Amino acid sequence: MDAKQRETGNRSSSPLLYLLKWMLAAAVIMTLLLYVPTPYAAYEPGIAFPTKPLVKAEQNSEASKGAFMLTTVQLSYVNLWKTIRSTWDDNIELHRKKDVLGGEDEETFIARQTVIMQGSSVDAIEAAYRAAGVAYQIEPYALVVTDGGDQAGEQGKQLMTGDELLAVRGQAVASLAELRAALDGVTTPQVVEVMVERQERHVQLNLSVSGAVEAGSEAEAVGVAQLAEQRRMIPQLAKDQVTIEAGDIGGPSAGLMFALQTLDLLTAGDLTAGLQVAGTGTIDADGTVGPIGGIDHKVVAADRAGAQVFLVPEKNAEAAREKASAIGTDMLIVSVTSLPEAVEALHSMKHAG
Fold first, then answer.
1. Does 14 map to a domain?
2. Is residue 34 part of a domain?
3. Where do the TM regions start and end (predicted)?
């Protein structure tokens, strides 16, 4: 090949080589943006969806024309692209993963949130029973570790968040009182056999117990930060039986909406006032509504779902109204401090309509 031919060949191959270099660079950049992990987690608006499919009642009152909706916050571990997007997207709230998980691994974090939701669901049913005047009894049915705490030692020789205690020293336990009874006579630190259910498996532990156990010191005695009784509400009349199947929802913030849905199923009339009612808030057995996190994201989720009313705890109301104004929604923000107050607010809307 002469010099002229070589020159022509180089010119014709240069654009292809240039294109290949840019394609390779683009692939590297996309890989960095989409697949390289970061130390951050992001909270974003989740979804709002009806509570009725999750609340099962033996005998329902007539169907409501509206609907109650719980609201969620989406938590994800973000890539570099979403980290960059957060600089201009107000709906992406970044936190360090370790701060979100609070020093726990992801599995333990999810287990704790699930246990908290189970307790919150029972509180919601009890609050609704009280509001509806339903006679009931409380029955503990499981004793669960809700916070394993900062424990030392080998895994398998300690209780972990999410563990359900089944038996201690050969005695079945389903309540704090039964745990104390099983440990009666243990006056000095010693190792005892404990059977637990962990991730749907039975696991036997040789657990070091600190010594004598008194009411209020059960968790400390078995080396964890917190134990909780899982309870069920047993109504006097079978027709008033209610259960809540929350599925993958974790945490306590759906309590208010579960209580309203339960009350609507137990009582005559349309508690929704014919409206699409979204909301959030923890609830105690006495009906007290408490504040939650992620209110900005929940306002967005409710608006996207077409909610006409958004019920919020009093301490979250100002932030909720600011976010509603920022996104230009017509959704009515209603502040409440208790279940009876939420019911009264909805009754007022019905009469006004």
1. no
2. no
3. 16-36
Examine the fold and report which residue of 168, 200, 231 is the final residue of a domain before the chain moves on.
231
- For 193-237, how does the pLDDT look when each residue is reduced to its tens digit (9 = 90+)? 999 999 889 999 988 888 778 888 888 888 888 898 888 999 999
Q: How far apart are CA 149 and CA 312, in angstroms?
A: 31
Phi and psi for 260 in degrees, rounded to 5?
-65, -45
253 a catalytic residue: yes
User: What phi-psi label fits residue 103: left (phi over 0), alpha (psi between -120 and 50 degrees) or beta?
Assistant: left
Query: Average pLDDT of 173-182?
Result: 92
pLDDT score of 106: 79
Instruction: Please identify which of the residues 120, 121, 175, 253 carries the catalytic annotation.
Output: 253
Same domain? 242 vs 344: yes
Q: How far is the C-alpha of 181 from the C-alpha of 177, rounded, in Å? A: 6
Shared domain check, 217 and 246: no
Q: Is 82 considered catalytic here? A: no
| Residue of 72, 85, 79, 73 lying closest to 97 (CA atoms) | 79
Residue 262 lies in a domain: yes
pLDDT in tens, 38-94: 888 888 999 999 999 999 988 776 677 899 999 999 988 877 777 777 778 888 888
How confident is the model over 294-322, as a mean pLDDT?
96
**343 shares a domain with 292:** yes
Domains in the chain, number: 2
Q: Are residues 337 and 257 in the same domain?
A: yes
